[in-house]
């Protein structure tokens, strides 16, 4: 058995298909939205920690050390590049950080005013291409960056990725048995296609529909 020193982070998951990096967080104030609620209610936010563990050697990297009232969202890896989402509730900004393929750099991709979003509920980095998205609890899906977009979706739909001009969502139904569908929409929210089944992206980038 190999001991990996994470200083209390006990759950990790693979960052992306074929990635050599696992990541984990301590959720000091819950998730990003829960941390925002603490701040809005007048509390001080204890920063969370996000660590990355390299396979197979077990190297541990903690690339960003936060200040009070800052919080990290879920990281993402796109075409080998690792991106991190940082929200500063005191200074009121959202920052997307490019960490390279092995944390050899930290460069700001973009920095946005926190006022660009209603709240941080389901505020997530998505790809490809790299996007900052929000799947609110009001049947509204938003792309915050690189270009703003807001469309209405079903209450059980979740955004997966963008393919050309198509926005691909998954949704579940119980009528009465549980089933899933893949929904393709255009940038106006119009449904272009509905396919029965769930979608799986292979390491080669192929789209498989599991029925």
Describe this structure in words.
- The relative contact order is 0.10.
- The longest helix has 9 residues, at 32-40.
- A hairpin with a 2-residue loop joins β6 and β7.
- The chain has one helix spanning 32-40, and strands at 13-14, 21-25, 50-54, 60-61, 70-72, 76-78, 81-88, 93-98, 107-113, 123-126, 131-135, 140-145, 149-152, 157-163, 166-174, 178-185, 191-196, 198-201, 207-210.
- The radius of gyration is 18 Å and the shape is globular.
- It is built from 1 helix and 19 strands.
- The mean pLDDT is 93.
- It is mainly beta and 211 residues long.
- Strands 5, 6, 7, 8 and 9 form a 5-stranded antiparallel sheet that branches.
Through-space gap between termini:
39 Å
Overall body shape: globular
User: Low-confidence segments, ≥5 residues, pLDDT <50?
Assistant: none
Name the helix and strand elements from N-terminus to C-terminus, one letter apiece: EEHEEEEEEEEEEEEEEEEE
User: What about the largest sheet?
Assistant: 5 strands, antiparallel
Structural class, by secondary structure, is mainly beta
Give the proportion of residues in helices: under 10%
What is the secondary structure topology, with strand pairs?
Blueprint: E1 13-14, E2 21-25, H1 32-40, E3 50-54, E4 60-61, E5 70-72, E6 76-78, E7 81-88, E8 93-98, E9 107-113, E10 123-126, E11 131-135, E12 140-145, E13 149-152, E14 157-163, E15 166-174, E16 178-185, E17 191-196, E18 198-201, E19 207-210
Antiparallel strand pairs: 1-2, 2-3, 3-4, 5-7, 6-7, 7-8, 8-9, 10-11, 11-12, 12-13, 14-15, 15-16, 16-17, 18-19
């Amino acid at each position: 058995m190999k001991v990996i020193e994470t200083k209390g982070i006990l759950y990790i998951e693979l960052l992306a298909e074929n990635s050599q990096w696992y990541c984990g967080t301590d959720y000091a104030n819950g998730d990003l939205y829960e941390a925002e609620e603490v701040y809005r209610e007048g509390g001080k936010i204890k920063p969370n920690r996000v660590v990355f563990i390299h396979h197979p050697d077990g190297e541990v990297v903690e690339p960003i050390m936060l200040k009070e009232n800052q919080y990290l969202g879920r990281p993402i890896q796109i075409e080998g590049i690792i991106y991190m989402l940082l929200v500063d509730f005191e200074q009121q900004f959202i920052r997307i950080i490019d960490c390279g393929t092995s944390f050899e750099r930290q460069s700001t991709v973009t920095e946005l005013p926190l006022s660009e979003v209603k709240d941080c509920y389901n505020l997530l980095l998505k790809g490809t291409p790299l996007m900052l998205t929000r799947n609110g609890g009001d049947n509204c899906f938003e792309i915050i960056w690189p270009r703003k977009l807001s469309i209405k979706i079903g209450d059980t739909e979740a955004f997966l990725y963008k393919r050309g001009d198509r926005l691909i969502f998954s949704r579940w139904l119980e009528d009465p048995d549980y089933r899933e569908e893949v929904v393709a929409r255009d940038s106006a929210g119009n449904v272009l296609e509905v396919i029965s089944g769930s979608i799986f992206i292979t390491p080669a980038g192929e789209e498989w529909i599991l029925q």
